[in-house]
Design goal:
Layout lengths: L2 H12 L5 H13 L10 E6 L2 E10 L4 E5 L4 E4 L4 E8 L7 H12 L3 E5 L3 E6 L6 H17 L12 E6 L2 H10 L10 E3 L5 E5 L7 H21 L13 H10 L3 H4 L7 H4 L2 H8 L8 H8 L2 H5 L1 H18 L1 H11 L10 H12 L3 H13 L3
Parallel strand pairs: 7-8, 8-10
Antiparallel strand pairs: 1-2, 1-5, 2-3, 3-4, 6-7, 9-10
Helix pairs in contact: 1-2, 4-6, 6-7, 7-13, 10-13, 13-14, 14-15
Length: about 375
């Protein structure tokens, strides 16, 4: 029995003496002092502000508990606000697909139905044959094949991968606002680390996806790649990688030769032409300042997203094309950090240089030589 499980047992014995919220706070405080106790495989159910949550505690301290819900969501709450709690299982069990289907239909209302595939559950307009799920499943197979041939063994997703295809833009904006992620009218879809869902809207005429996939394709592939990476072990939802890694992979898969390599086989097909055009406009020095900036911090994404996305694509493309095994080794380093803690700049640089070396000037020179050959 783990240290945390023993503490739950203690709570059960003394719950009649102390208030539940006080005991929960005591649990969290005491567990932080136990070396190696930050692991708990079972499930708990808690009531916070009259809402019930059930899942597995991932990380905790005196101020916040991070819980993985049985539907794949992340839930965070103040332990001092817990009104009731109980342990509901010795092992974590995700909800069944039928349970998630019924939850989605109850949440979205009568205008939707849900189509399931081997790995996806897609909520879409009621009464129409859905092909979004088939597209997502095709992308899943391409994603697995792409990384498998490069020596990266992927994990099977723990949960059905959920996508919500809104019927129009207004519905999309309403649902995203309800999730606490208001978006502008230029956004066609997004993946949420917190909910583990893709939310998008169909731009096709009368809700038909055939036109909608072409007009939203690169955006949806980008967001679907994020969802796949964070659910197959390429990236970690608990300790997300540097932004250049996450966005580099997502922009990589926007190219037909990556997301559909069986039909598009040449290296030229693997080049993301939009990102490559942006990359060629970036002013450069010979000291590797730009790669260093992206590796060390996410700050450039906030000040110059145009440069950041283009450079991230180019670095990812270069490393995957020329040093795939080393790049996969680097990806494995980025998933190994402590959950829900920010990785310091020094550690980010160490992760990178331990694989690719410390000579940034040489790295940038070889990188630029390769990219210039793509002209």
């Amino acid at each position: 029995m783990s240290d945390l499980a023993k503490l739950f047992s203690t709570i059960a014995r003394i719950a009649t003496v102390f208030s539940v919220s006080s005991v929960c706070a005591l649990l969290l405080s005491a567990s932080t002092a136990i070396a190696g106790s930050k692991s708990f495989e079972g499930m708990i159910e808690v009531t916070v502000d009259d809402r019930e949550f059930e899942g597995r505690p991932l990380a905790w301290d005196e101020e916040v508990v991070h819980l993985l819900g049985r539907d794949g969501r992340f839930l965070s709450f103040d332990p001092k606000k817990v009104k009731e709690f109980r342990q509901t299982g010795q092992q974590f069990r995700p909800y069944s697909t039928s349970k998630i289907r019924s939850m989605l239909l109850r949440e979205l209302g009568s205008g939707f139905e849900v189509t399931g595939t081997s790995h996806y559950m897609v909520a879409h307009r009621k009464g129409q044959r859905d092909k979004w799920a088939e597209r997502f499943e095709d992308l899943y197979r391409s994603f697995v094949r792409y990384f498998s041939v490069r020596g990266f063994k992927l994990e099977e997703p723990s949960f059905p991968l959920i996508a919500v295809v809104c019927r129009n833009q207004n519905e999309f904006m309403r649902l995203t606002a309800e999730q606490g992620v208001p978006v502008g009218r230029g956004i066609l879809g997004f993946y949420s680390l917190k909910s583990n869902r893709i939310t998008l809207f169909d731009r096709g005429e009368n809700g038909s996806m055939s036109h909608g996939w072409q007009t939203t394709g690169s955006t949806i592939i980008h967001e679907a790649t994020h969802q796949l990476a964070f659910n197959t072990g390429i990236n970690s939802r608990y300790s997300p990688p540097p932004l250049w890694v996450a966005e580099g992979l997502a922009t990589l898969f926007e190219a037909p030769g990556v997301y559909d390599s069986s039909a598009y086989r040449s290296r030229d097909d693997r080049i993301n032409r939009v990102r490559f055009t942006d990359f060629k406009k970036i002013p450069r020095t010979k000291n590797g300042e730009l790669p260093i900036a992206l590796v060390a911090s996410d700050g450039l994404f906030h000040s110059r997203p145009d440069i950041s996305y283009a450079e991230s694509w180019a670095m990812t493309f270069y490393l995957v094309e020329t040093q795939p095994r080393r790049f996969m080794k680097y990806l494995k380093k980025t998933v190994g950090h402590r959950p829900f803690t920010k990785c310091a700049s020094k550690q980010r640089i160490k992760d990178f240089t331990s694989v690719f070396g410390t000579d940034w000037r040489m790295f940038d020179a070889q990188f630029m030589r390769y990219m210039n050959e793509l002209e």
